[in-house]
């Protein structure tokens, strides 16, 4: 994965408001529920399989920010949650690509499904972030 892709996704996951709530507290809640640390999330690409707990963290996170529900992507969720910070082209590309991912119905497989969705959404590039958002979010 490219450095800028990681930066763009972490920017989205860690700092941006989503649907009336801050992503940070949701991230913290989901890490606690999955029994993992921020370092575990950061290290997720160091092996071929980050482990069940990391995958379940993403299920919790994506459910709580309104991207997935009942083992499927909520139609229009990517645009609703991230459309204000990424370009329309990025929204179209992510929805066309990621919405093709389907899940089985078991709880364990819902974690795998969420992991696949998070991997797909990491296709967002720094160039997809709207210019005003890049400047605003780099200030910290």
Automatic annotation (TrEMBL):
Single Gene Ontology MF annotation: odorant binding
Pfam families in the cross-refs: PBP_GOBP
Keyword presence, Ion transport: no
SUPFAM superfamilies tied to this protein: Insect pheromone/odorant-binding proteins (SSF47565)
Keyword field: Signal
Signal keyword on record: yes
Signal peptide: 1-23
Name of the molecule in the record: Odorant-binding protein 56i
